[in-house]
Each structure stands twice: as C-alpha cells, then as structure tokens.
Amino acid sequence: MSHIDENPAMLRIAIAQLNPVMGDIAGNLAKARAARAQAAKSGADLVLFTEMFISGYSPEDLVLRPSFVAACELAIKELAADTADQGAGVVIGTPLLRDGKLYNAVVVLDGGAVLAERFKVDLPNYGEFDEKRVFASGDLPGPVNFRGVRLGIPICEDIWGDLGVAETLAESGAELLLVPNGSPYQRDKLDLRHQVVLRQVIETGLPLIYANQLGGQDELVYDGGSFIFNADRSLALQMPQFKEEIAVTEWSRGEDGWHCAQSDIATLPQDLEADYTACMLGLRDYVNKNGFKDVILGLSGGVDSAICAAIAVDALGAERVRGIMLPYRYTTEESLKDAADCAKVLGCRYDIVPIAEPVEGFLSALSPLFAGTQSDVTEENLQSRARGTILMALSNKFGSMVMTTGNKSEMAVGYATLYGDMNGGFNPIKDVYKTRVYALCEWRNKHVPATSLGHAGEVIPVNIITKVPTAELRENQTDQDSLPPYPELDDMLQCLVEGDMSVSEIAARGHDAAVVKRIEHLVYIAEYKRRQSAPGVKITSKNFGRDRRYPITNRYRDVLEK
C-alpha cells in the first residue's frame, strides 16, 4: 500500500479527459498509462478517467462477448500492477463480469492492486442509451477509502436519475464525489449537466468532479467539458470541450470538508460554433478510427456539399479531401463555377466526371421496358444513382470513404435518392436542418474552429449560400417545387420529430393543416430510406436512428382535431 499519509490535508486529483478508441483495449491501456505518467509529473495522487474508458463507450453488444470482457479485465490487472510504484492511484471505467452478471463498472487501483469495484446503479434506457439490454444494475454503493479519503463514485446516470445514489453515498460517509461520465454532445447540454451536478451538490453538501469522455464514436460525439463544483456551489474548474486534456486539481481539507482551489475556467464554444465543432470531431474520429486515409464527396455547387467539404477540410486537412463534380445536362454553368470556386478556396483536390454517358446508357438499356410511359422521377433518380455509383467506384479503387451530404430536412421527408446521393460511409450534417446549414455556412466564413486544420476566412463562396437551392435533376427545378420554404418546413419537422407534436398542434402555430399532414406523411414513408442511410453526427435532442426509432411498416396518421 502507498506510503502517502492516511489522513491527508491535501490531495491532487488529475482529470483525464481523453479520446479512447472502441475495442482498442491495448491502445486505451497505453493511453491510460501515459496519462498517469503525465499526471505524476505534476504530483497527482489520483487520476480520474471516464466511463468504460478501457473498452470505449458505448460498446453495445460487443460487451456480450466473453473474450472482450476478459481482455478488459486483464488490462485492468496490468494497470493495477503499475500502481505498485507508489505513484498515483487510478479510478477508471471498464466492463466487469461478476457472479454471472455483467456490469458497467469503475475500479479503484492503488498499491499494486484493485482497491475497490463499483457498479453503475441507474442504467439509462432512453434515446441513444440501451444499457439495460446488456448490463445488470449494481446495488447502492458505499464510499471507497482511498488513502484516508472517503470517495463516492457514482457513474454517469447515477447522478441524473432519482435512485438516490449520491445521497446514499453522502449518508454513508463520502467526503467527495467523483463521477466518470460518457455523456454525448447535444446542443446546450453542458448547461443541463451543470444543473444536474448543482442539484447533487446542494442535496449532498459535497463537492463533485464531473469527468466526461471525449471523441467520436459512430453517431455520437463525446465533447468533454469536464468540470468541478465545490460544496459552496462555486465552479472551480471548467475544462474545454472537443479537446483532449489532463487537468491536475488541488484539494485541501478544512473544517467544512474538501475544497478545490480555483483552477482554469475554459471559454466554451456556443451555439453554431459548438455544433460545427461537434460535426468536425465526429467526422475526424470516424475517418481516423476506422482507418480511412481520406474522403471523397460529390461537390455539386450546392450548400450542403459545400459545408460538408468545409467540415472535412477542417477535420482532416485539405490534402485528405477530394471533391468530384458530376455534371449532367441540367447542371448549370453557375453550379460548375460554384463547385470549382469552393474547391479552390478550400484547397482540396477537385475533379470533374461527366455522367451523360452512363445515364444515357441506363436509359437506352431500359427503353424497351419503359416504352409507353412518361418521363418522371425515375429518370431523375437515374442521374443521382449514376453519381452514387461513380463515387463508390472511386472509393473502391482508391480506398477513400465517400461522404454523403444530405441534411436533416431532406432525410426527414425523403428528399434524397436511395443508392444515389444517399451513398456513403458517413454524413456529418445528417442531424442538421437546412436552415441551420445556412447558418453554419455563414458562421464558418467568419470564424475558424479552434481545432481546425483549415484556414480562416471565406471558405464557402457567398453565391452558394444566397442562390435558390436545387437538385438540378430537371430543367429549372428548385427544392421549393416539392417542399415548403425551408424555414416553414424546418419548423414543422422540429415539431414532428423533436417535439412529437400532433398535426393540430403544429397547424395552430400558423401552418396550413393540409401541408402539415403531407409533411407528416412524407416523414413516415421515408423511414425505409433512413433505415439504410449512412450514420451521422448527433446534434439535436432526437436524431434519426439512435433516438427516434419508428417502424417502417406504419399506417398511423394523426387525425385533425375539429
């Protein structure tokens, strides 16, 4: 056991806000060891890691593989052995199998051994979380005696719910609450986290350390933003969002308990900057963690592909982004110029691949079967599918990941072509409504994100932002031929998707009831498309896929109230 004073008046606790990789147990162990060594140089007594750090979070059904769980436990034993050096102790998250039950657990390591194990009590089972499917719920925990300090270690949801986990810890003698978290990004969520923690601080009378994971994991982006509130409700530490960092905090024990000395209070991104940075981090980690060397996307001269190209350059660097213009007879000179200008100002590679020959080839092959029919959306979609095939061919040949670029408004109503412009491996704006896309473009032209690999200044030509949106699949086509104006459409969609409001309630906001009914119908019948779409970064409170899970076969429609 450590030679450290068993009744200390001072304590240094390091918060490791890091970016683990799902399933890379050896890599995550190495990252934990490096963080512990770094914290030790600053005299840390204890290093607090985040929820399920050793495995990555959330492992979903991967955690049901006995070999995976066994590998995680072996890594924990190796890390525990490291603490025999009398250096910093460790609090770290991992899956654990105990008495035939699988737990979302935290272990406390010190003196070369596993000092204690604690199991998550309140398992979230809503939105993006489905933990009751794979984990057993732990019993209400007691504090852990670490070098004479009684630590309460509730895990993430344990401080959000009403099971009284933090209160139980306080009543059983905890002096300080350490909370490892895997809380994904959602717009304005940091304020909500502060509110949740302050409620626990007030109810328990204890200071609380909130350590949150960082990094993209499929659709989710863990934004970090770890922080500390003292028992007097003062904010002692605010770590940055979207950035790896290890913060060493200094604690003193007084008559009123433990108090954290005032430390750094980071300036955090707000609103559009936060959304943009989340999209950027989500794309960067998806590409890098899955081993893609670069990305490729159709650069049409439209606003969606332009913002996706900008996000890609910021996330990966211009040398890892390739734009492809795929013109047909309806592609205007304006679009050709806008796409070329966008690629030039971003500094990425740009190629033009005309699609007239493949489209005409499809039409020729199908002409005997199409004889006697009128040209309609079928022929329009052939253009999109030819483009999708060409992009996928380039992906196969050069190992590039295809980015798909449909916004949430289009995904909601099915204004996209399955196996065409929906082709791709990842979509950074899948959860961003069209009106928000325009706002992000204007924001990016005036600002550059802190972790960007791109340059400052205008990166999206203004004409792309101001011109009338069109898919250019027929002569003089505009999006508003098929859809209401985007400000109206997006309001209806937010009411339907995030708000779960009825058609009558939405119509009462000033929308035409018949139009709302039509949009509701489009949202329902597009479910089969969304089920086959690429993953994309979660930004809102309810994204398609993890949060909103509707049946494909569904005849329900709202009845208008009279």
Give keywords.
7-stranded mixed beta sheet, single chain, alpha/beta, 562 residues, 6-stranded mixed beta sheet, 16 helices, 18% strand
Describe this structure in words.
This protein is an alpha/beta fold. 36% of the residues lie in helices and 18% in strands. It is built from 16 helices and 19 strands. The strands form four sheets. It has a seven-stranded mixed sheet with strand order 5-4-3-2-1-14-15. A six-stranded mixed sheet has the order 6-7-8-9-12-13, with helices on one face. Strand 14 and strand 15 (257-260) form a beta hairpin. The radius of gyration is 26 Å and the shape is elongated. The protein starts with 9 loop residues before the first strand and ends in a 31-residue tail after the last helix. The relative contact order is 0.09.
Topology:
Blueprint: E1 10-17, H1 25-41, E2 46-48, H2 66-82, E3 89-98, E4 101-110, E5 113-119, E6 144-146, E7 149-152, H3 165-171, E8 176-181, H4 189-204, E9 208-212, E10 214-217, E11 220-223, E12 227-229, E13 235-238, E14 245-254, E15 257-260, H5 271-289, E16 295-298, H6 303-316, E17 321-325, H7 333-346, E18 349-352, H8 356-370, H9 377-398, E19 401-402, H10 408-413, H11 434-446, H12 462-466, H13 486-497, H14 503-507, H15 513-525, H16 527-531
Parallel strand pairs: 1-2, 2-3, 7-8, 8-9, 16-17, 16-19, 17-18
Antiparallel strand pairs: 1-14, 3-4, 4-5, 6-7, 9-12, 10-11, 12-13, 14-15
Helix pairs in contact: 1-2, 5-6, 5-11, 6-7, 6-11, 8-9, 13-15
